[in-house]
Amino acid sequence: MRTFGAAATIKDRAWLVGFKLMARFNEMASRFQLDYERQPIRMVATNVREYNTRLLSCAKEPEMVEWIESWASQLPAGSGFMDVGANVGAYSLIAAANRFKVVSIEPSYANYNRLCENARINNMSQNILSLPVALSSSNKIANFKFLEVLAGSSRCYYNEKNAYHLKGAINFESQVMVYRLDDLIAQFNLPIPSLLKIDVDGGELDVVSGATNLLKAPELRSAMIEIGHSLINPDDILQVMDTSGFKVVGKFFRDAETDNYRFERK
After folding, report:
1. How far apart are CA 180 and CA 190, in angstroms?
2. What is the pTM of this model?
3. What is the pLDDT of residue 230?
4. In a designed cystine with 100, which of 81, 157, 180, 184 is the match (CB 3.0 to 4.6 A)?
């Protein structure tokens, strides 16, 4: 039987010291710089997905970075930024670095863990509130589906149509809390953000359908929504946004099936 404390054997103590040293080495060796030029931001990368994709988030979506920075120059420090589908938090970190107060929403347990870790190593945990929930058009507990269980992966989803743009077998399902965004804000007294980013791979219409009050709040100035044409008719989201008082001011090509739409209040 293994013992601890004063009763631990020399062998047990040696193993414990070894584990601590290995953990410390792994922690330091897995930290890399995000490709953000204005100031250093570190992120943890322990797999190819994180290293080749998440660390290059600025090159991947330069329009997102420009959107954050342009509004940061117009809004007072401490304005709200809500990151729906935050993944491991690259854009949340950039927003926090630009003096936004961030609410990050990410239901994937692997991504949520890394999101919290990335906030911690950049001393941004007080400026980034991370919530492990999914957003939709109703409140429930539902199964979040994973094609791939890796930090940094976007091969996971929840939406009302149970639709996803990539083909492949479901590797794992995990129950998560699902909220209407309006109800989440009301129940937990979350601040109304000035900027809203949505990237949820097929659930965008569900999210905006559950955010009627937020979208009509004058404090919300702009939104960036990634829309996959194979899963959603963009006109459906454009109609919701138009009814809520927003106009499209930019459309950015992401791939053959996906565009980022930038909205600003009319």
Report:
1. 13
2. 0.91
3. 87
4. 81
Reply yes or no on whether the pLDDT at 6 is more than 70.
no
How large is the average pLDDT for residues 43-65? 97
Residues 198 and 224: their CA atoms lie apart, in Å, by 6
CA distance linking residue 152 with residue 144, whole number of Å: 16
* Residue 14 pLDDT: 65
Q: Give the three-class secondary structure for 213.
A: helix
Q: How many CB atoms lie within 10 A of CB 38?
A: 11
Task: State the Cα–Cα distance between residues 103 and 214, nearest whole angstrom.
Answer: 14
Helical segments of 32-108, H only: 48-52, 57-60, 62-72, 90-97
8 pLDDT higher than 70: no
- Tell whether the torsion through CA atoms of 133, 136, 138 and 143 is positive or negative: negative
> Could you read off the pLDDT of 32-45 as tens digits, one per residue?
999 999 999 999 99
**Torsion sign over Cα 50, 51, 55, 56:** negative
Under DSSP, the state recorded for 126 is: T
Confidence of residue 219 (pLDDT cuts 50, 70, 90): very high
Residue with structure tokens 């479901």? 170
Q: Using CA atoms, how far apart are residues 155 and 151, in angstroms rounded to an integer?
A: 10
Side-chain half-sphere of 193: how many Cα atoms within 13 Å?
30
CB 82: neighbour CB atoms within 10 A?
A: 30
Q: Which among 123, 128, 102, 106 is positioned nearest to 54, based on CA atoms?
A: 106
β 80-84/101-105 pair status: parallel
